[in-house]
Design a protein that fits this description.
The complex is a heterotrimer of chains A (89), B (85) and C (98).
Chain A (H helix, E strand, L loop, with lengths): L1 H21 L3 H21 L3 H32 L8
Chain B lengths: L2 H12 L1 H8 L4 H25 L6 H26 L1
Helix pairs in contact in B: 1-3, 2-3, 3-4
Chain C lengths: L2 H26 L3 H5 L2 H20 L3 H36 L1
Helix pairs in contact in C: 1-3, 3-4
The chains are: A mainly alpha (89), B mainly alpha (85), C mainly alpha (98).
């Protein structure tokens, strides 16, 4: 039973991590990274490492998206201040 | 091998899977809806794993996620609302 | 098999069915507004039912109270975030229509 759980968690993590690497837009990538945090926490719990899963939950579901979104907001605001609307990509 | 672990495996496979289907493509708002449901289902799976492994201390993981997931989602909605104005 | 375990299993099956139905609805229902309807039943019905099943299985004591508190937290947090996501979706759809 534990083997089946490990395989499921590994598959979820593999799919999510591949998508995180293939997503280009930062905001969407932040959501995918939050997903990846959930899947990794599941994997660590199945592998009997609850302390790692605890920190992964904190980092993955709150801190990583917050940092990425703050960076995106700062960069976009600077681009608007520079008045280069064609560079907002 | 007990009912709790079986329920956890079924929920992890058939519950989080459809959320990934929606959450890994589409607009940011749609991904957020998928992320919300995935967080709820994941914390339930963590609760079931704690009972299945009969380690009561593992319930701290679900408690942690139940507190942190709304915070993360509210960060996202706040950012998206600020971007739309 | 004591009646308490039977009750716990029934509650577990009901909660898991609610969660699976919500996940299926999220994947199947068309359009951004209809999909939002999948979020609140999972948080307000599925998660507390499973937490109640675990509490019944654990028996009276501090552990059961903790499980119930986690179920309550999941229900409250899920409801709040559902409203926030719905508000963001409405704004995005209105902006897309303009």
């Amino acid at each position: 039973m534990t083997n089946a759980l490990t395989v499921i968690a590994l598959l979820l993590t593999a799919v999510t991590a591949t998508t995180a690497a293939l997503t280009r837009e930062p905001v969407r990538q932040a959501v995918v990274l939050a997903f990846l945090g959930l899947c990794l926490a599941l994997l660590f719990t199945v592998l009997q490492a609850p302390d790692v899963a605890l920190s992964q939950l904190g980092v993955g579901s709150a801190i990583t998206p917050l940092l990425i979104l703050l960076t995106v907001r700062r960069v976009r605001r600077q681009e608007q201040a520079d008045e280069h609307p064609d560079r907002t990509e | 091998m007990n009912a709790w672990l079986i329920a956890a495996a079924v929920l992890a496979a058939c519950g989080v899977g459809p959320c990934l289907l929606l959450g890994l493509r589409g607009s940011p708002e749609q991904r957020l809806a998928g992320l919300n449901l995935a967080a709820t289902i994941t914390s339930v799976v963590l609760l079931l794993l704690a009972q299945g492994f009969s380690r009561t201390s593992y319930t701290d993981l679900a408690l942690d996620l139940a507190v942190l997931a709304p915070a993360g989602t509210l960060v996202f909605t706040r950012f998206l609302a600020g971007r739309q104005q | 098999m004591t009646p308490r375990h039977t009750l716990a299993l029934v509650l577990l099956v009901a909660g898991a069915a609610a969660l699976l139905l919500a996940a299926l609805a999220l994947a199947v229902l068309p359009g951004p507004y209809l999909r939002l309807h999948a979020l609140s039943p999972a948080a307000a019905l599925g998660a507390p039912l499973v937490a109640l099943a675990l509490a019944v299985d654990t028996g009276p004591g501090r552990a059961a109270v903790k499980l119930l508190v986690i179920g309550l937290l999941l229900a409250i947090g899920g409801t709040v975030t559902t409203m926030a996501v719905a508000r963001t979706t409405v704004r995005a759809e209105r902006k897309a229509q303009q």
